Amino acid sequence: MDFLRHERLRTQRPATAPRGNRRANRVSPTFFQRYECKYLVDPLVVASMRRYLEPFVRADSFAGNNSDGRYRVSSLYLDAPDLALYQQTQAGENDRFKLRVRTYDDDPTHPAYLEVKRKVNNVVHKRRVGLNRDYARTLMMRHDPATVLSRLTGTRRADAEYFSHHIERLSAQPAIRVQYMREAYEATGNEPVRVTLDSELRHAVTLNDDLGHTSGDWIDTPVHGMIIEIKFTERFPWWVKEFIRGFELRQRSVPKYILSVEHALRRRVTSEASLAGLARPVMEF
Description:
Elements: H1 3-11, E1 33-41, H2 46-53, E2 57-59, E3 70-79, H3 84-90, E4 95-103, E5 112-120, E6 123-131, H4 133-141, H5 145-150, H6 154-170, E7 173-187, E8 193-205, E9 219-220, E10 226-232, H7 238-246, H8 256-266
Antiparallel strand pairs: 1-6, 1-10, 2-7, 3-4, 3-7, 4-5, 5-6, 7-8, 8-9, 8-10
């Protein structure tokens, strides 16, 4: 990493840089359609990255009053009995998707977010709906989805039906929880850009509807560095381009679900009991 070049970029930034209207409405942290670029970086350069980003971004709303600006993200991933969704990504299919139920804390009064994240070529299409946790569990376990859906209206019902349709079509079931600490920023102007820094990745094989953040057998998922994601629609602004160039970032695939499942399956020799339904015969190591 050329730190001197980065410092020149940071200190010579023109005062009149086109950063957009800072009084514009805040950009929603979730886009229906967007591009995502992922990078692995050395944690030692993160402080310099924060300094560069500071004039262009603000912490996102999920950070709340956390002193360090980070918060935990926990996702319960669902997959078909033969791990078809896992294998789609492994095979590099151009049209693939993931099913997950995401939470940000253990407060039972806070919503759980049902998500279908589809990737077609390089474009990410994401639909999600926040429901109370009892409704979320009912839909993902296929106990009585019709009753839950009948109590929803408008776009919330449409998004919940979309999630439920994918669950039914695949006979999907809970497979694994994936957690990490996230530091997230969104552009201060009207630019639809979001930058996230994820660390402390871990997983717990989960074959039931447990959405807890502490329950279960949590294992660190090996990742060599901090995961940075840049999410944008259409084109990213000049300061993102300079960020990538200045820190010599190289785009790569860092799928948290895939890395976690792979690690769980490799551990099955010593953890056969805890991996009960997850160790599919189709997977060989």
